[in-house]
Design goal:
The protein is α+β, with helices and mostly antiparallel strands. It is built from 4 helices and 11 strands, in the order αβββαββαβββαβββ.
Length: 175
């Protein structure tokens, strides 16, 4: 119908009915509670995570500490789980350098309530000095027996990939 403005969140929920489950009208579990600027990154990551018929359910999509948080559940094979986790990690990493208002590149701002914004939408000051060396860094920890294994990956926005970084190069010691 001409003149009707659709809400992108409604369109996203309708596009991925297996991902979002109604919990009672009009509530939808996993409803995206984020700004318009993260719309495309959510759509792209959901599409990549659900490729090859992988089905999982969003339980919560929100902003926290200036970046996207995407919580989900599902009984998946180890390979499918790794694929979904990587898609979520990439979405969260991209949000850390993408303005939540417009989708353009932007850094983290604070203090107080942290936000990711381009300069035109920002309040406060850039947090580069506080995050020096840790910006766009994903730190993963797991245990193999009694040994702690650390994996550090830096997000490269231009190529939309993670690049491995030696933990010691950012001051993290494995034990």
């Amino acid at each position: 119908m001409p003149g009707v403005v659709r809400n992108w969140r409604v369109e996203l929920v309708e596009a991925y009915p297996d991902l979002f489950h109604p919990v009672g009208p009009p509530a939808v579990q996993g409803w995206p509670c984020v700004g318009d600027g993260w719309r495309d990154l959510l759509d792209a990551r959901i599409r990549s995570a659900q490729a090859d018929g992988v089905t999982f359910h969003a339980t919560q999509i929100k902003e926290k500490y200036g970046t996207l948080r995407f919580y989900w559940r599902g009984a998946l094979s180890p390979e499918a789980r790794a694929k979904v986790e990587e898609a979520v990690n990439l979405a969260e990493a991209r949000s850390a350098c993408t303005c939540e208002v417009c989708g353009e590149p932007g850094p983290l701002y604070g203090p107080g309530w942290l936000t990711t914004r381009r300069t035109a939408h920002a309040e406060g000051c850039r947090l580069e000095e506080i995050c020096l060396g840790f910006e766009n860094l994903l730190i993963e920890e797991r245990y193999v027996g009694d040994r702690r294994v650390m994996r550090c990956r830096r997000y490269d926005r231009e190529n939309d990939v993670f690049i491995d970084v030696a933990p010691a190069s950012v001051g993290i010691q494995e034990k």
